[in-house]
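Troubleshooting log. The previous structure file for this entry was overwritten by mistake, so regenerating from the original sequence record. Sequence copied from the archived sheet and checked twice against the printout by T.R.
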Amino acid sequence: MTPVRDAAAYAAQLDEKVARLRELLAPFAAPEPEVFTSPAEHYRLRAEFRLWREQEERHYAMFEAGDKHTPILIDEFPIASQRINQLMPQLKAAWQASRVLSFKLFQVEFLTTLVGDALITLCYHRPLDAEWQAEAEQLAQRLGVSLVGRSRGQRLVIGRDYVQEEMQVAGRTFRYRQPEGAFTQPNGTVCQQMLQWAYDALGQRDDDLLELYCGNGNFTLPLSTRVRKVLATEISKTSVNAALANLADNGIDTIELVRLSAEELTQALNEVRPFRRLAGIDLKAYDFGSVFVDPPRAGMDPDTCELTRRFDNILYISCNPETLAVNIAQLNDTHRIERCALFDQFPWTHHMESGVLLVRR
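Regenerated output below.
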């Protein structure tokens, strides 16, 4: 069981993160970061557990980094959402009562949302048959969840293979499908703060927005209401399909989504080579004033970083402040930091999310 930490310990660790971000951005004369805190408990909307067998009983287990042989057995997980903590003992009781559900079960994954939707993935070292599906359907109905069974070469879906989330930004509700196995922000409360900050930082504009690494449209939807139209790119097929569904679910028709990597879009905009996936899209018809990026931990590659330089405004969300600083150093001769923020997406760890608004000098 994860111990409950006190407010003073949380504040001290957050102060360390603020100092670290301040130090990284100091060479660029950054303003004081805006700081967005997380709930101390029940903030994590997804969790993954291995199962550890002991005395003929399977337990939820986690391991220290680098140690796969010394399990930490878990009955509850206070950093996870209340929905996950509610489901954990119910699911455990179900597999203990059923050999069909427990046989060769080695991993369990929970995906939940702020509005209480839940999906459970059960991973097996054996083929899943009709008997398993029948029991799994009863379990899903009893728990009020969707359920996915996975084994080598199999993926059986009971209910939906996604959860439904809602985020409130500037008084409007945005609805999201979040697929099983795809990336989603783990801390829903802080994600909502990130969306509001990005919305405010971009401001209301009368030109267009380019977005790189758009995922399932997490930022795309609210930011689209601040500009004339959006061209968004993403390479993952699962995320692209979720984003297209989210555009339809929210009735937004000012976003064009293309399945290209940031590097490929850079080539397209520089007219290095054409792409069939851009057929029917006139890049020259866009009047881009801003670019929004939320890259992976490695940050933007040098060519993509150079691409962003051509925009007056660069709105950058980062999960790695070190690579953020490297990218800002490349852009510092043409852009300055107007706003910056720290989002405590991962309390009780050294990780942090940050955001900067860079404007042309």
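The two ends are 51 Å apart (CA to CA). Archived copy saved in two places this time.
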